Queue: 2 jobs
Job 1
Amino acid sequence: MRVGGLLQSVNTVSDNTHCEDCGDEIPAARRKAAPWATLCLTCQEIQEKASMQYRR
């Protein structure tokens, strides 16, 4: 049973319905606008800010 649940979780993440960082669901509007998105908007913003600080 646990393996099945784990596989289901992996499949859900691989379908880009949940954020790779925090695990929250990526809203349908974001998935529609950016189907390649693997992060929720909050995590994406954090990643971009960190990247900008690193470049300076």
Job 2
Amino acid sequence: MAGAGNESCATDRSAPVRRPAGPSAGTRHGALRTEESVEAVLLTGDVSQDESEASYHLAAETLAALGVPVHWIAGNHDDRAAMARVFAGYDFLRPLETLALGGWTFIGVDSCVSGQDGGRIGDAELERLRQRLDAAGEGPAVVVLHHHPLAVGTPLLDDCMLAQASPFWQAATAAEALKLVICGHVHGEHSIAYRGKTLEVGPATCFQWRRGACDIEIDDRRGYRLFDFAADGYSVRTVFV
């Protein structure tokens, strides 16, 4: 696969996935196009700041240059309805529900609450997650959501992480097939092991928050994470451009 972003698998805004084998948006996506065997991009939300349909058209037209499917979830800065309405007009843009790719099953989870920076997974969404994990079948599974379900040590972001994360982790740890959780939201890269699972947090394509910050401190870099998935595991590296 190829990158996750805003925030994850390439960035909080996009992440590529592939099988083993102050720049502008054009520069960032040009860098991603040079990667070999990119099969898909995971877009982990916060695609827009003004929630306008024009912003989603701009994102779609930029992402089209990658020439691969882009599987998206919404972030707390997105208008989900506008995002879905615009992205439905582009065949390569697909809402992430359940995706089989590279021998792995990717499951999208909605962690956003309208009008709030912090996240929460409602009872109905949590039950859908359990059902999708049960139906994943053989092979490893990945959950993709916007908000980070573990603190990353940056108070500015940990104040608006996934609230009441315990039910999520109960569902996650009960699913033997689930190996990996991917999120965005943090504007920074992190890899955290927890209860037999790994949380991979992707950087943003706009800027990063300085690690450990309690107030506004910007790390002026843009990036994404590149994942290689295999039957026996995965590897990941971060690319800043």
